[in-house]
Amino acid sequence: MSDKRLNNQLTLAFPTEDMGEALRAVEGSVESLAANRPVESPGMGEQLMEAVCEWSNIQQAVRRVKRNHGSAGVDGMTVHHLPAYLKQHWPTLRAHLLAGTYVPSPVKPVEIPKSEGGRRRLGIPTVVDRCLQQAVLQVLQGDWDRTFSAHSYGFRPGRSAHQAVEQAQRYLADGYYWVVDLDLEKFFDRVGHDKLMARLAQRISDKRVLKLIRAFLRAGVLANGVVSPRRAGTPQGGPLSPLLSNIVLDELDREVAQRGLRFVRYADDCQIYVRSRRAGLRVLASLTRFLARRLKLHVNQQKSAVGLGATRRFLGFSFTASREPKRRIAPAALRRCKRRIRGVTRRTRGVSIGRMARDLTRYLRGWHGYFGRCQTPSVLHRLEEWVRRRLRSVIWTQWKRGRGRFAALRKRGVGLALAARTAGSSHGPWRLAQSLALKIALPKVSFDSLGMPRLTVRR
After folding, report:
1. Going by C-beta distance under 8 Å and a sequence separation of 6 or more, which residues neighbour residue 431?
2. Structural contact between residues 242 and 236, judged by C-beta atoms closer than 8 angstroms
3. Which 3 state secondary structure label does DSSP give 219?
4. pLDDT > 80? residue 17
5. What is the pLDDT of residues 98-127, one digit of tens each?
6. Beta carbons of 339 and 386 less than 8 angstroms apart
């Protein structure tokens, strides 16, 4: 990559961890220690940028960026080209960082579908900027993370969505049946830069690092050859955005903890647990005012609500209404899963059953890695049966006509009369997928041989 390209990048100014075990909740008074902790820890030193630029820190950042893959930014550079690029240009980049003159490139706008409908806007930085954001994150995270709330679980080392769901489950089991579900409207687009930078300046004394973070926040969006400025928000798509969002919402955590309320927060998903609907409505109203006044954030009135725990969902899970509530897969999450499986196993897709099974296995392993922790195995059993029925109907279609179907059934051990009756049936593939003949010809073990995971067996 040429020095001219590097200079253009430097002068272009525009002012989804491993799942850990669930942590045990503190008994009695919720988060009394967190509520009484010092507001801020001592400021970070004047030589913070030197720590960011340590070659070992940069190498670690490169490994993380490569592991996360991700698409190229506006300059077209991929993660595979990053090591060679840094090897050649790192001395110049380091000099600009230490002098406080580095200017990030604009981000590339990308929209992805949201699970509940609609579109989510992302801003994809160049891989060089992603590497530098990761390097800053690695230096800042340890100092900030130890002061965050014990009930904040999103984007934090050693914490996971499963831990957040299990904590919510414990609150329901303790009798806090009413849930205040807070949904922040376009949170990542509305974070105020000045307020965030003031919060950072309380702990960071190295003005070069503060200037770099502000530059990342204000990096323009390049679309159709035009760079548009960004005056608010922490653009999703960069490694630094999750930490900055936790820094903003830590003020909400402190407020809820000081009120003695039981709560769980994962990124901008926050639920508070109380004993009555009246208390829930009071908490929702007061926190809505707090967020608007102190953080300049708006609560989505259509999605925020107070309801019984069994009627609300959290991070893809819901809970049974029993005295000892159990985790179950939320109906919306199950519908999304089935919609994805239908797309992969479409009979008119025109791929081999081996290719279809590989695509399906890749999706199901990831899905089961998250939702396999539900406590309602009957749901997983029914889903597993449904997937096999989908595949049997595909295979039946690929066997084409009666003579070929008869031969395939006989080859797989189906009796003469049953094979003839099934091959000559006028019923469609979906109905015949449940027939005795196809269950004999295509038993569970035949799908095991294709690499299909068993959803009801933990591996």
Report:
1. none
2. no
3. coil
4. no
5. 999 999 999 888 877 776 666 777 888 999
6. no
The terminus-to-terminus CA distance of the chain in angstroms comes to 46
Euclidean distance between CA atoms 167 and 24, whole angstroms: 8
Region 171-177 average pLDDT: 96
Contact between 162 and 60 under an 8 Å Cβ cutoff? The reply is: no
DSSP string, 136-186: HHHHHHHHHHTTS-TTB-TT-TT--HHHHHHHHHHHHHTT--EEEEEEBTT
Residue 149, both tokens: 């709330």
Residues, the chain, total? 459
Tell me the C-alpha distance between 210 and 52, whole Å.
12
pLDDT by residue (tens digit) across 212-231? 999 999 887 877 677 777 77
Rounded Cα gap, residues 365 and 386, in angstroms? 16
From residue 180, alpha-carbon distances to 188, 300, 315, 377, 398 in Å are: 21, 13, 15, 28, 51
Quick one: tokens of 395?
């295979």
Helix%, strand%, coil% for the chain, nearest 5: 50, 10, 35
Of 117, 289, 283, 122, which is closest to residue 189 (Cα–Cα)?
122
Secondary structure E strands in 218-311: 221-223, 226-228, 262-266, 269-274, 305-308
Tens-place pLDDT, residues 70-85? 889 999 999 999 999 9
| DSSP secondary structure code for residue 107 in this structure | B
CB distance 329 to 417 below 8 Å: no
